[in-house]
Design a protein that fits this description.
Pfam families: ABC_tran (PF00005). One of its GO terms (cellular component) is membrane. The protein is of the alpha/beta class and 274 residues long. It has nine helices and nine strands. The protein has a domain of 169 residues: Rossmann fold (3-Layer(aba) Sandwich). Helices cover 36% and strands 26% of the residues. The strands form two sheets. A six-stranded mixed β-sheet has the order 5-6-7-3-8-9, with helices on both faces. A three-stranded antiparallel β-sheet has the order 2-1-4. The radius of gyration is 21 Å and the shape is globular. The termini are far apart. Bound molecules: adenosine-5'-triphosphate.
C-alpha cells in the first residue's frame, strides 16, 4: 500500500492539504493530514410530528427536513511517533472525541486523511459490551473480538478479572446490573489485555475511583511500552500530565497548541481558567 510504503520510507505525504513533514529519525505511527470531519444532521422541517404529514411530505416532495452540517474538525495535521502517549484536551465540543473516532476509522474524512501503521483500537466509555450478558461472557467475547485466540483468551481471563477487581460475585451478573464505574473498569481491563498498535482511550478513566485510576495509569504506561502510540482524551488534566509525553490542545476543531505537557497544560489552564 502506498501509505504504508510512505510511512516505512519516512517521506512527506504529498496531498493538497498542509503538508505533514515526518521526522526521518523516528517511526511514524499515525499521520493526520489536513483532516476535516463534518457531521450531517437532519434538522426538523416544520410539521414532522405525525405519520400522515410525513407521508404527505414524501408524496408532495415538500417541506423536507433540512440538512445541517456540523464542522467538528477543521484542518488538523500532526504526526504521532512510536512510543508517543498523546493527551488530547479542549473545552466541551472542541472536537476531541471526533478526532479519536476519525483516527479509529469510524468517521469518514470530509477532506484530508488519516494514515495509521497498524490497527487502531478505540476504548471509550461506550465501547461495545453486551449489557444482557455476564461480565464473564463479555470478557470472552471481548477478547475474541480483539483477535485473541480461544487459548489466549483462556490464559488472559484471570488477569482481566483480577485487574477489573469488581465486587465479589459480580463477574457472573449481567452487565446491566453494573454501575457505570464497574462497567468502565471491566471495559478497560479487557482492552488492556492485549497490546495495540494504536490505542485510543476516550474518557475511559473518568468513572473509576482513585485506586483504580492509579492502577489504570500504571497499566497505560505499561501498554505504552508495547503500543505504537496511545491517545488519551480526559477532562482531568492530572491524568494527562502523569500519563502523556505530549499534549494536543484542540480549540473549535483546530489545533491550538501541540507539544510538551507542562507548557500546553499551563497555557490551557491560563486561557480557560480550569
Ligand atoms: N453524532 C454527531 N452528530 C452531529 N454533531 C456532532 C456529533 N457528535 C459530535 N458533534 C458535534 O461535533 C462537535 C465536536 O464534538 P466532540 O464530541 O468531538 O467534542 P469533544 O471535544 O469530545 O466534547 P466533550 O468534551 O464535551 O466530550 C460539537 O459541536 C458537537 O456538537
Amino acid at each position: 500500500m502506498a501509505v504504508a510504503k510512505a510511512l516505512k520510507e519516512k517521506v512527506p505525504l504529498a496531498t493538497a492539504q498542509p503538508e505533514v513533514v515526518i521526522d526521518p529519525d523516528r517511526e511514524p505511527i499515525v499521520v493526520v493530514d489536513g483532516l476535516h470531519i463534518v457531521y450531517r444532521v437532519y434538522s426538523g422541517g416544520g410539521n414532522k410530528g405525525n405519520a400522515v404529514s410525513a407521508l404527505m411530505r414524501i408524496v408532495k416532495r415538500q417541506n423536507r427536513p433540512q440538512m445541517k452540517e456540523v464542522h467538528a474538525v477543521k484542518g488538523v495535521s500532526f504526526v504521532a511517533y512510536r512510543g508517543d502517549a498523546i493527551g488530547v484536551i479542549g473545552t466541551n465540543g472542541s472536537g476531541k472525541s471526533t478526532l479519536l473516532k476519525a483516527i479509529a476509522g469510524l468517521l469518514p474524512a470530509a477532506k484530508g486523511a488519516v494514515y495509521t501503521d497498524g490497527q487502531p483500537s478505540l476504548l471509550g466509555v461506550n465501547a461495545a459490551l453486551m449489557r444482557d450478558l455476564t461480565g464473564s461472557r463479555n470478557i470472552i467475547l471481548g477478547c475474541l473480538a480483539m483477535g485473541l485466540s480461544p487459548e489466549e483468551t483462556k490464559a488472559k481471563y484471570e488477569e482481566i478479572v483480577k485487574f477489573a477487581d469488581l465486587k465479589p460475585g459480580f463477574i457472573d451478573y449481567p452487565m446491566s446490573t453494573y454501575s457505570s464505574g464497574m462497567g468502565a473498569r471491566l471495559r478497560f481491563a479487557i482492552a488492556a489485555a492485549r497490546t495495540h498498535d494504536v490505542l485510543l482511550i476516550d474518557e475511559a478513566l473518568a468513572t473509576g475511583d482513585a485506586k483504580f485510576k492509579r492502577r489504570s495509569r500504571a497499566k497505560i504506561n505499561e501498554l505504552r511500552k508495547d503500543a505504537g502510540a496511545v491517545f488519551l482524551v480526559a477532562h482531568n488534566l492530572d491524568v494527562i500530565e502523569e500519563t502523556c509525553n505530549r499534549v494536543i490542545w484542540l480549540d473549535d476543531g483546530r489545533i491550538k497548541m501541540d507539544g510538551d505537557p507542562t507548557e500546553v497544560l499551563k497555557a490551557y489552564t491560563d486561557a480557560t481558567g480550569k
